[in-house]
Amino acid sequence: MSATPRLSVRNIRKSFGAHEVLRGISLDAHDGDVISVLGASGSGKSTFLRCINLLETADDGDIVVNGEEITMKTTSHGRSAASRKQLDRIRTNLGMVFQSFNLWSHMTILENIIEGPVHVQKRPRAECVAEAEALLEKVGIADRKDYYPAHLSGGQKQRAAIARSLAMKPKVILFDEPTSALDPELVGEVLRVMRDLAAEKMTMLVVTHEMGFARNVSNRVIFMREGQIDCDGTPQDMFGGKGSPYFQQFIRHMETENDAA
Amino acid sequence: MDFPFLLSTMKALLAATPTTLGLFSLSIFFGGLLALLIVTMRVSNNIVARNFAKGYIFVFRGSPLLIQMFLVFYGLGQFGVIRHSFVWPALREPFVCAVLSLALCTGGYSAEIFRSGLRAVPPGEVEAARAAGMSGFLLLRRIIAPIAFRHALPAYSTEIVLMVKSTALASLVTVWEITGVAQRLISQTYRTMEVFMCAAALYLILNFLILQVLALIEHRLNRHDRRPAERKPSVLSAFFGSRA
After folding, report:
1. Structural domain containing residue B204
2. Which residue of B has its CA nearest to A169?
């Protein structure tokens, strides 16, 4: 295990009004870690993920990406990143894949993928296009590069979104329920891409309801409950009965849900 | 029908068309810049700026353009400060007054149109851009503005057509554009019907051409809403099927 974690989160707290959504969450992700974050809806897992790249600003706590801490400041408007520049730079190291894809609708798939590398990272366009085409090949939608997002299926959109985040060469990719908005028959094609990434030792933090992915692909499972990490461990331990009673209850519930469906 | 008269009327009105187009294009240009400023204030977090913009939009949308034009043309000269300032040589000109009031008015309307475009930008797409390290002007230029402009364009097209017609009001502050020249011809010939019909036809032609250009722009910008096959109409695809 390398000395500096790819991502280190220290004691994140977040409230919306009087409701405390995150009550002190800490986590280290090392190189090649694939961490599944599980929990009932409302347990704060998506908020936790969004606090890591500051789409939500935590009320307290530190975020360290690849050894560099995001500096924060507190003003009368509340807490925010102290340096826009630093935040933008660190965000390029943190890929993000959203539940609802959020591809830029006015750009073709290829334009979506080279947008960040060309305009944020200021790399030569020709080089970015070549890389983008290779990435599209890898996620299996090379033939869709000149299409607009509106003309792709959900599974294709999500694979394009994964390619878009990979194009920035991030140190860590955050997945926010990447398969939850997909028709059941399209889930597999996205999970396959994620499994390939895991095999290539990409560091991933995945908020998901896919028990199969958590059990078979991740090397660590975190169960969140009421804004805290209730229990965590290897999938073998967690699914082998070593999780907390709440986690046992949660997986039993998920299984009956699946049976019902 | 008296074709020679219609022809000479058309000639006289055509000679005034550059003035109409000048009023139109200058007021759309400066009004557009003003609208960008007003909409920036309208959506800003600064309460003073926001309320100023709200008040501006209310005043210029809520009062008749003709009265605004009269106030600029007849009203401003009453103030010694303005009469003795460096802007007076310009503000003395009817053409400048007309452009100024047209621009001030369309600035208010366009600001609201642009704001509706901004509201239509999906928050998720902005979040994706932020997550990719975009912020500030880059985010505005690459993501927010292009999407907002696409949403605003249909309503903005209507505003542009309205502005072509609004230039007719400039005749009432002695600018010799199409309507002004038409009225002068009528006072000389008393042939109201023919002259105004010619003028109306000219406005229709202008708007037809402008709408064609706008439709072309809209068509180009909305490529992402069309099926790929519609995007590249090709004779070959009819025989061999589209790529999809």
Report:
1. 3-240
2. B132
